[in-house]
Every structure is written in C-alpha cells, then in structure tokens.
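> @MW can you paste both from yesterday?
MW: sure, first one:
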Amino acid sequence: MCCGAKKALRMLIPGVLMVGLSGCVAVETGFNSPAPSKRIDAIVDASTMEDDESLIELVKKLRSFDQAERMFAIRSLQIRTGETLGYNHSARHWQRVEAYDRWVEYLRERGIETGSIAREPEEASSEGIEESSADGENG
C-alpha cells in the first residue's frame, strides 16, 4: 500500500467509527426528553398509568408548543379519565388556555396538588400574540 492510500485510510477510519457509534448514544427518555419522539412515547405510556404524577405531566403537555404533544396528551387524558373537558389540541391559543384551566380545576377537585403547574406559562407562541391583537385585546 502506498503512503497516500495509508493516509486516506487513517483519515477514513475515525469517520467510520463515529458514524457507526453514533447510534449507540443514549437519549434521555421521559416527558422532558430533548428528543420529541421520546416525549411522545412518555405521553402515550402515561395513558395506561394510574399515578397522579403522570396525570399532572399529561395536563402540563396540554400547554406544549408542539401540536403533536398536545394531541397525544389529550388522547391519553381521555383514555385515563373518559374526559376531554372541551380541549382541542388544534384550537386557538385562548381556547386551549381555557380548557387547560378546566383540567387544572379537574385535578384540584380530585385532591391532586397543582401548585407546580397552575402558573406555568406556555412555551412562546406567535399564535397567541397574533390572536390577542386580532381579538382587540392589545392596548
């Protein structure tokens, strides 16, 4: 093998190893995972659980910026409780906030502590800003 081929092979091997090993990196799972698919897996898994903590997490996900997370969260809540409380994952921002408040009240009525979620703001959404100005609520 000539010197040029050896040099090329030495440069190629680390790249191949990195590509091959990249699939071995562990991704955090759960409701707060950086990977959207792992967050959705947690939401779906919560539909079969019976603990208060996962119920609270599902209600929190109703305020997610990600429409898919909101959709899976309300379906999981519906499976667990038989209720939607009028929540629609694709409704206007203000309608989702009203329904979210109904879910917080639902938890409170069942004696579930909601202090950690009641005041939690929704992730930034330009939709909410546009709707506020369109509804005449701005200034």
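MW: second:
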Amino acid sequence: MAAQIFLHIKLPLLGSENMRFVFLVAILLVLVGFPAYAEMYKWVDEKGTVHFTDDLSKIPEKYRSSSESQKTLKEGPVPKKEEKPVSIPTPQKPSEPVGFEIPIKIKGEVAVAEVILNKQEKHEFIVDTGASFTKISWKMAEELRITIDENTPFIPIATASDVVLNPLVTLKSLSVEKAEVENVDVTIGDLPGYEGGLLGNSFLYKFKVVLDPINGKMTLFSLQEEPSPDRPGGYGKDYWVSRFRFYHRILERLKHMKASYEKRDLRSEKVSLNRVINAIRYFENQLNELDRKASFAIVPRNWRE
C-alpha cells in the first residue's frame, strides 16, 4: 500500500487554463521527486513463526490487530555506470636520427666540402670515405704553424707509383659545418694537381656518411647514441670492432716495415727507420688508450680483437 502524500495548493482564482496547467505540471514534478516506498507487514503466528507480507488481506484476521507495519524503499532500476572508452596509448616511434646536412660541390667525379681546421683556417677538402686518414697540404700545415721534428711519427702512404712516409700530426679540432671532432689525426702531404685537402676516416669514422650529389649535399649521422648494454659507451659493435682492427692493422704494417729496414741495415734508411719506430710507439699508445676506454665502457673482449 503506497504512502499517501497530501499537498494543499491553492490555485489562483484568476487566470487562464494555461496557468492551471503549469501548476499541475509542478505538482507532478514534486511527486516524482519523492522516493517511492512500499508498506510491509510483520506478524507472528501462534507457533512463534515470523511472517512478512506487503498485502494486509493475506494476514489471518486474528493476527491483524497485532501485526506491525513498516515502510521500505522500493528498489528501482540501478542506473548503469557510463563506461568511458579505454584509451590505448599509441606506441611512440623511435626518434629519427638527426644528421648534419653539409653542402657539397661536385668537381669532376669527386665531392668537395668546406672544412675548418683548428677553428681558424677554412679550406676545401675532397670527401674520401675510403681514405684511412684526413690529409692536409704543406701550405695548410705552415698556416697552422705545425712543426715537424725527430719525434714526429711518419706513416706509409701508398701513391700511384710508390709508398712514401708522411708525417702524422694531431689537430685540436676539425669541423664541417656543425659537425665537429676534436683531436683529429691528419697526415701532411700535397695532393697531385689539387691545393686542397682530403677528408678521410680519421674524421668520418664517427659518422654514417650519406652523399647526395644530385641535391648537392652530404649528411653526417653521429654513430654515438645513449649508452646501453648493447651499445657500450654509446657505440655499437661495428664501431668498436673497426677501431681496434684499424690500430692492429696499421701496427702490423709498421712493424713489417721496421723489420724490412732493420734487415737491409742501410745508412740511408736510418731516418726512415726512426720515423717508423716513432709511429709504432704512437699507435701503441693510441691502442692502449682505446683499450682503456673500452674497459671503462665494459666493451666485450671479443670486440677488441
């Protein structure tokens, strides 16, 4: 039996039918706003059993006077929770490596780029990814005030007709546009028919080189990334293997030349022998320094062979 709610509302005597309709709608809204209740009855029979019913007529007449009435809130439909769509995070793409774009000129069949030596001298260099060392001319060495003495290492350089010994010196810095490398080994010697220099792997070894002669540019991508277990020191296996092989290979060649000079034992070759000995000493020190850096970066031993 539903609870009864009495509202005493005096409708205005004056007004139109529309006004009366508005008041009736207001009454309905008020009634809807109240929660609905159901009346329950509790009664106990002669055996002491407790019974519940929502219909008074179902209680035997002799127990009606002793029954108890109580109101319970009717259960309405449980409002459904609005399910928000689960947003699945979009996997981030690995960041593209940023390279240094460098304008180049094509002269004949070679690419030429502008290079700055020790942050002061600017010259054009032929880009040669197959050359072991960067090469500067004697004129450039003079402009940079580089001195050659009895302690300067010399290394063998193969020419079209012979193998010659060129001095090896270290520049404080070498930069091509914004790509810069410090402590770059360069040889000194003039290129036949060309006043510029040669940009070789003593600078380029730290980059992946992409030449685009059609668009007149070269892009250098740094090989160094964030250090990780598979990239000790920020470099991958190929980098470490190639650096150790380079030093082992050049030392093997220098020691072979030293043995040849000593075997011939010619007075005219004494100077060349001393220069080669200095080069061996220099590259052994370089190899030891590389091995020290590799140990600090925890480079696997089989990458250093």
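> thanks! Residues 237-264 form the longest helix (28 residues).
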